[in-house]
Fold this protein.
Amino acid sequence: MLLRPSNSLAIIAALFLAACGTGSGNAVEEPASRSDVGLFTTLPIYWGEDSSVTAIIDGGGEKDWVRTVLEQRFRIAPLDALEPDTLQGVEKLILAQPRPLAPSENVALDDWVRGGGRVLLFADPMLTRHSDYAIGDKRRPQDVVLISPILARWGLQLGFDEEQPAGERWEKAFDAAMPVNLAGRFTRVEPGAPADCTVSETGVLARCTIGKGRVTVIADAALLDPDGDALSTDGKRRSALDRLIATSLDS
């Protein structure tokens, strides 16, 4: 089942799909092996930062490497809200530097996870990804993630060391490594509801079992930054993302 984007994204998606159908006239067959995943993000992963409705209809612009990787495993449903109706039918969800959640979205997301949903969440307290849009522009990605209520509900606190050196480095997280740049650190706190979280030795990654669901949270989003080598055979970024997806959403 291909999930439906909500509200304003539904209009853009409809135009895009209509345009695809009026090109050569040949429908693209969806591989049956791909499952569905919801994508909720302020990063230009799906549409691209410079995308306009015209560009989407024309099929112009270079596709982000993260979207390319995700589409090899999933059928992506971009979401612009996390409410019961938009989460209905969703089993897997990627939150990548999301906007602040409304109180109703915090409740809906928590209920959805406890019912069996799986989440891969990138929560960067100091986003270092370049944007062409100025600070304050609504089209700019969320510079500082603001999701403390849902993290506290899951028994986690996100901190940030202002004295840490800037610059990308690869850091160990459990049995893997990933690129980070001005990353945050998770610590466990007394949860407001039953949750079982394990935090990596570096604090950059946490894995939680919450009710029937599971959440994997990364205190950084540098892994999703543009990288010309990401799609190469030995691309380290792609390998790290593939591994993270496999351990958080597939297993």
Remarks:
- Residues 14-29 have pLDDT under 50 and may be disordered.
- The first strand starts at residue 35 and ends at 41.
